[in-house]
C-alpha cells in the first residue's frame, strides 16, 4: 500500500499544502511521521476537504501530545479539548493581531490544529509568519542582544477585563483565569526542542515587556520586533474553504486572523497541544 503523502511548498519561508491523507481516519505511524516532518520543515501545513468532527480532530491532536483546555474560550459540546472560535457582529474577533497561542503559561503549546466549520462569503483569511525566518534576517549585533533577554507574557494583554464584564459569570471566569495565570517569562529567542533551530519568541498578543532594560528601551525594541515579524517575506496567507484544516508549529510561528469579514460569521474549531518550557540553548557550533 502506497502511504507516500504529497507536500507542496507554498513559500520559501513557511507553509505547505499536504495531500494524500484523510484526517478523518487514524493515520499509520508512517503517515504521521511524514506529516510531522513536513510540519517541522514548513512550520504550518494545510489540508483541503477534510470536514473532520470535533472527536476526530481531538484524536488527531492527541497524536502530537497532551491537549490544553483553554480557561476562557467555549468548547465544542462534549469535547472540552476543542475550543470554538465563533466570531460575528455580536461577538467581535479578538485574534486579529499577531500572536503565538497561549504563551502566558509556563509550557506554551507546541502544536495547534484549526478546522474551518463555517465561513463568511468572503474574507476571514489567516496569515502565519515564521519566527525562524524573522530571526535569521536580524543583524548579528541584534541577535547577540536578544539572546540574553527574556520577555514577560501576560494573559491580560489579549484578554482585557472589559471584554468579560458583560455578565457576572464571564467576569468571574476572567478573574479566575488571571489568578491561575500570573505573568511568566520566556527567552526572547528560543531553541526548537527537536530541530534545534532558533526563532524569535516575542509576540504582540501576550508579550508586555523585555525584562532587565528600562521601559522605554523595552517598548522601542518590542515595537521593532513586532513590526519585523510582519514582513511579507516571512509569511504565508491561507484563504479558507469549508473543510480545510491547518496544523502549525506554535513554538516558532505567529499568526493573524484577518477580521475583515464582518457582518459575516466565522466559526473555527481549535485543538491545542501542550509543549515544553521554552529555552535558549546557546549558539550552535560545528564539530
What does this protein structure show overall?
With 287 residues, the protein is an alpha+beta fold. The protein has one domain (6-273): Clavaminate synthase-like (Double-stranded beta-helix), CATH 3.60.130. It has 7 helices and 16 strands. The protein has helices spanning 29-42, 54-62, 131-136, 140-147, 155-158, 168-180, 215-228, and strands spanning 6-9, 16-19, 44-47, 75-76, 79-87, 109-118, 126-130, 150-153, 184-187, 189-191, 198-200, 207-211, 235-238, 245-249, 253-257, 266-274. The strands form 4 sheets. An 8-stranded mixed β-sheet has the order 1-2-3-14-6-16-5-4, with helices on one face. A 3-stranded antiparallel β-sheet has the order 13-7-15. The chain has a 3-stranded antiparallel β-sheet with strand order 9-8-12. β2 (16-19), α1 (29-42) and β3 (44-47) form a beta-alpha-beta unit. The chain starts with 5 loop residues before the first strand and ends in a 13-residue tail after the last strand. 37% of the residues are buried. The model has no long low-confidence stretch (mean pLDDT 93). GO terms for molecular function: metal ion binding; taurine dioxygenase activity. Belongs to the TfdA dioxygenase family. It holds the Pfam family TauD.
Strand order of the largest sheet: 1-2-3-14-6-16-5-4
Report on the biggest sheet: 8 strands, mixed
Which stretches are poorly predicted, pLDDT < 50 over at least 5 residues? none
Strands, count = 16
CATH first level: Alpha Beta
Fold-level CATH name: Double-stranded beta-helix
Structural Rg? 19 Å
Structural class: alpha+beta
Q: In angstroms, what separates the terminal alpha carbons?
A: 41 Å
Q: Specify the CATH architecture.
A: 4-Layer Sandwich
Order of helices and strands, N to C? EEHEHEEEEHHEHHEEEEHEEEE
Bulk shape: globular
Q: Number of helical segments? A: 7
In helices, the fraction of residues equals 10-25%
Amino acid at each position: 500500500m502506497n502511504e507516500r503523502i504529497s507536500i507542496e511548498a507554498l513559500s520559501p519561508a513557511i507553509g505547505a499544502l499536504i495531500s494524500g491523507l484523510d484526517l478523518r481516519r487514524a493515520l499509520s505511524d508512517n503517515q504521521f511521521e511524514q506529516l510531522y516532518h513536513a510540519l517541522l520543515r514548513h512550520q504550518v501545513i494545510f489540508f483541503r476537504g477534510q470536514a473532520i468532527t470535533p472527536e476526530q480532530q481531538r484524536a488527531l491532536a492527541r497524536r502530537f501530545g497532551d491537549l490544553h483546555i483553554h480557561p476562557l474560550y467555549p468548547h465544542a459540546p462534549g469535547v472540552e479539548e476543542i475550543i470554538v472560535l465563533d466570531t460575528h457582529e455580536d461577538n467581535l474577533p479578538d485574534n486579529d493581531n499577531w500572536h503565538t497561542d497561549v504563551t502566558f503559561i509556563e509550557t506554551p503549546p507546541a502544536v495547534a490544529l484549526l478546522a474551518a466549520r463555517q465561513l463568511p462569503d468572503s474574507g476571514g483569511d489567516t496569515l502565519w509568519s515564521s519566527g525562524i525566518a524573522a530571526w535569521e534576517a536580524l543583524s548579528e549585533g541584534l541577535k547577540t542582544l536578544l539572546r540574553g533577554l527574556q520577555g514577560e507574557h501576560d494573559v491580560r494583554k489579549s484578554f482585557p477585563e472589559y471584554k468579560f464584564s458583560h455578565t457576572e459569570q464571564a467576569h468571574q471566569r476572567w478573574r479566575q483565569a488571571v489568578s491561575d495565570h500570573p505573568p511568566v517569562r520566556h527567552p526572547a529567542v528560543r531553541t526548537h526542542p527537536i530541530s534545534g533551530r532558533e526563532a524569535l519568541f516575542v509576540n504582540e498578543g501576550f508579550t508586555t515587556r523585555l525584562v532587565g532594560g528600562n521601559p522605554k528601551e523595552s517598548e522601542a525594541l518590542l515595537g521593532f520586533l513586532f513590526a519585523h515579524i510582519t514582513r511579507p517575506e516571512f509569511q504565508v496567507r491561507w484563504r479558507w474553504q469549508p473543510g480545510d484544516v491547518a496544523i502549525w508549529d506554535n513554538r516558532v510561528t505567529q499568526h493573524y486572523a484577518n477580521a475583515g469579514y464582518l457582518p459575516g460569521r466565522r466559526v473555527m474549531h481549535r485543538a491545542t497541544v501542550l509543549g515544553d518550557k521554552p529555552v535558549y540553548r546557546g549558539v550552535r557550533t560545528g564539530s
